Amino acid sequence: MTPSLIPVIAEGEKAIRIPLVVNDITYHATCVSMGNPHAVIFVDDVDLFDVHGIGRQIEVHPLFPKKTNVEFVEIVSPTTLKMRVWERGSGETLACGTGACASLVASVLNGLSERTATLKLRGGDLHIEWRESNNRIYMTGGATKVFAGELF
């Protein structure tokens, strides 16, 4: 997808490993759209990474004219990825379906994973498949009711 459609300010036909600087550190984001913008950053240890501090700054970075969701991904193996997500306007959440899909696509585009993988999120595991035959992404995972309410 061309960067302007994501949207992200970047040169070229795809937004793969776009450098962005936060606190004098350069991160490389692979940006994709799942109907909403995502910047995927690969890290060595997602559990130790400063998701709150860095995610908050990347969300509003000038490269993202409409802000962005930020996924921090650790490659455990070609079929297992660990992910934490900073959702634009919300902060860190326990899970994000579009973020998990974006993370798999970004890992495939960077040659880091297979087209089918389990993504381990703090809210549970998701099985994501990006089919080459039809270019569609499929997500399978548990669903749990966490809240009920009434309108008065």
Overview of the molecule:
This protein is mostly beta strands and 152 residues long. The protein has one domain: Roll (Diaminopimelate Epimerase, Chain A, domain 1), CATH 3.10.310.10. Helix content is 14%, strand content 40%. The protein has two helices and nine strands, in the order βββαβββαβββ. Strands 1, 2, 3, 4, 5, 6, 7, 8 and 9 form a nine-stranded mixed beta sheet that branches. Strand 7 and strand 8 form a beta hairpin. The chain is globular. The N and C termini lie far apart (44 Å). The relative contact order is 0.15. The mean pLDDT is 96.
Fourth-level CATH superfamily = Diaminopimelate Epimerase, Chain A, domain 1
Q: Main beta sheet: strand number and arrangement?
A: 9 strands, mixed
Number of helices: 2
Pick out the low-confidence regions: none
Helix-strand sequence: EEEHEEEHEEE
The proportion of residues in beta strands is 35-45%
The CATH class assignment is: Alpha Beta
What is the residue-mean pLDDT, rounded to a whole number?
Answer: 96
